Amino acid sequence: MSAVFKPKAVTANDLLEGDAVWLNVAGGWTRDIRKAAIIEDEAKGQSLLAAALQQEDVVVDAYLAEIRIGEDGPEPVHFREVFRTRGPSNYRHGKQEADNVPL
Amino acid sequence: MYRYNDFDHGFVRERVRQFRSQVQARIDGVISEDEFKPLRLMNGLYLQLHAYMLRVAIPYGTLSSAQMRALAMISQRWDKGYGHFTTRQNIQYNWPKLRDVPDILSDLADVEMHAIQTSGNTIRNITADHFAGAARDEIADPRPYAELIRQWSTDHPEFQFLPRKFKIAVTGSSDDRAVTRAHDIGLRMARGQDGDIGFEVIVGGGLGRTPVIGEVLREFLPVQDLLPYIEAIVSVYNMLGRRDNKYKARIKITVRENGIDKIRELVEAEFILRRASFGGADQELLARIKTAFPAPDFIDAPIANFKTALAANDDFATWVETNLSPHKNPDYAIVTISLKTLGATPGDATDTQMQVMANLAEQFSHDELRVSHEQNIILPHVHKSHLAEIYARLADVQLAAANVGLASDFIACPGMDYCTLATARSIPIAQEIAARIDELKIERDVGLLKIKISGCINACGHHHLAHIGILGLDRAGVENYQITLGGDATQNAEIGKRAGPGFPADEIVSAIERLLEAYLAQRTSRTETFLETYRRIGIEPFKIALYGDGKANHAA
User: Fold this and answer.
1) For residue B277, what is the enclosing H or E element?
2) What is the interface pTM, i.e. ipTM, of the complex?
3) Which of B245, B265, B290 is the last residue of a domain?
4) Which of A17, A90, A94 is facing B428, going by the closest CB pair?
5) B40 has a chain A CB within 8 A of its CB
6) Confidence (pTM)
7) Same domain, B308 and B283
């Protein structure tokens, strides 16, 4: 019996800025995890990750991160992924500098 | 200070030019990330959680005021207005953009700085006693030797692909402020039987997942044998060190697996061969380097105003009590500027603060600053008549915290606020502990205490060597903090012992508070430090303080 697949998103770091980005449904990249493409099965996850790894002209170090589905779309699960959606806790730098990012 | 010659300038400029074309090739898609990554790491450029991070080398932690001003300018122009000083006496910028990095490196080259060998499996920045050239207990200034090693190790063709990174520290004092016993090679200056200068050579120390206190490889190495002997050590390691397992690749494991006696035998044999090939060129170079480190031209002036200020200003007197160290010239003092102001991030300085420190160094410290591995900035040569003015100007920019050597003078790595290797955050824990200590108003009563925090097992925060060490881990998706007790970073180096199960983030501050209360209750007098109390009574009373009676041995 295989384990229940937990929803995921493909995430990476932007080549030029270095910040966290997520793969969206159009196959492009978004800085807002709420606009990430939701992956609900293993095979789809692996094929999207493989495609993302080919996009190294725009992103670096793509991987699959677990998400949960919130009211506004995908939300991070692990605390590391939560930090990637907003920035460090000692200064209001990174994504949290913008107003539209949930804290 | 050592100044670049034409060769140094040419070499660093050429590396900037090469890196500029490498960055362009990556952006244009001419080279892949796999090809680019080793090139950027050779130039100190990491990719972290939220951005790139550039680690700039500060050789043996010594800066001129012009260099500190350039670091301030770079933080203001290319980053977010601050920099982070590290436990290897380097500075890290947390927000550079890939396209800007060649320009940053060019700005660094303008002031004789670079980011070469601040990453990768090479010989990293040579660290030294941050009081070098000023300390009263010093045999001689260790920096000419550190500079000699820096020049030899920079771009050394044999040592660009070592099994793992390699760290060397040098001190000229009997009080070890350079953590020599936790380095791949630690060099402690000593005097031979005839009064001649040499080094005790320690090998195989290190922290990380396997903390080891280094062992003495050679009790007394005459100074003239320094380079060939170090080269012999690194060459033996290069041949013998494991490349099959990253976690067993550091020299501390090579020493453990082969035994110190076999390593010594191999090194001594290699040393004989290597020494012959040096032919005295290293000694000529050393003689030239030494002329770049003259003793400052000390002024001879009255210090009466220092005593007047001490009597008139309690805050100044409090700062003097903790932030000054004895200088070899009795009219001078070594000033440690704390980068641990309440609410600040340990080791961070803003561009304005860097500017002020640069100005103070130029005006009052013979143009010199130092970075300490404890993440503070030092003004090494200050005439006592200038202390009151320095204090006032530091206070204007929130740099007058009177806490050097006390509980809130943490070492804290960037942790998961920045670092991609981290398993938990360090900075907010340090800030919360500092805030609690401030509320309790017990810091000066507690006295000398080293608290060090790492956000993962790699131990950049030196937690193993802390009186109270904190290690942040990921326990089933939650930040969890393990405590070690009784570590010591000095010449009596010791690895701290794990106290027991870790604490969640919202319980670690009160756990530390209970340790401080236990110490205050158990010490025999105000002069018995936390570490002395720990050594006298052992870990058990502290375990009881942390976990209650009988609960200390529960599994994590």
Assistant:
1) helix B260-278
2) 0.95
3) B290
4) A90
5) no
6) 0.96
7) no
